[in-house]
């Protein structure tokens, strides 16, 4: 099974940038769709971005489109989320995740999850 460990979170002023990283290890990682999700207290976990390994297609939530970019390194052992023009509503716990079939922003289809990392954006 896949193991996922997030890093790169923290606190930033509105309008600033952060880059999250997810170190990936385990079986069948290179064939999996990889995604980023976030959750604030009292709210449902929502899909932020996802990338399909097979054809390189990407998916973004409407609230982050044009500001966030998902990518992988050349060795495909690290997943990134570049976050620009951050807003206070981007605050939450961010999780990287993997799924073996299909790709998209629906959280129910993802089978492997990291422990999460906090992102806080102040006004």
Structural topology:
Elements: E1 2-7, E2 10-13, E3 18-26, E4 33-39, E5 46-51, E6 58-60, E7 68-72, E8 78-83, E9 92-99, E10 112-113, E11 117-122
Parallel strand pairs: 2-11
Antiparallel strand pairs: 1-3, 3-8, 4-5, 4-9, 5-6, 7-8, 9-10, 9-11
Report on the architecture of this protein.
By secondary structure, this protein is mainly β. The chain is built from no helices and 11 strands. Strands 2, 4, 5, 6, 9, 10 and 11 form a 7-stranded mixed β-sheet that branches. The radius of gyration is 13 Å and the shape is globular. The model has no long low-confidence stretch (mean pLDDT 92).
Percent of sequence in beta strands = over 45%
The shape, in one word, is globular
Structural class: mainly beta
Low-confidence parts, pLDDT < 50 over ≥5 residues? none
Briefly summarize what is shown:
The protein has no helices and 11 strands.
Please name the defining characteristics of this protein.
123 residues, single chain, mainly beta, 0% helix, seven-stranded mixed sheet
């Amino acid at each position: 099974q896949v193991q996922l460990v997030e890093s790169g979170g923290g606190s930033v002023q509105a309008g600033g940038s952060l880059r999250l990283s997810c170190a990936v290890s385990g079986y069948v990682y290179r064939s999996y769709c990889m995604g980023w999700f976030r959750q604030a207290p009292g709210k449902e976990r929502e899909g932020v971005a996802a990338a399909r390994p097979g054809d390189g297609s990407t998916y973004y939530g409407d609230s982050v489109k044009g500001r966030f970019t998902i990518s992988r390194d050349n060795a495909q052992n690290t997943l990134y989320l570049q976050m620009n023009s951050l807003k206070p509503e981007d605050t939450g716990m961010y999780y990287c995740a993997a799924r073996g079939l299909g790709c998209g922003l629906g959280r129910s289809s993802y089978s492997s999850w990291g422990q999460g990392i906090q992102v806080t954006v102040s006004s």
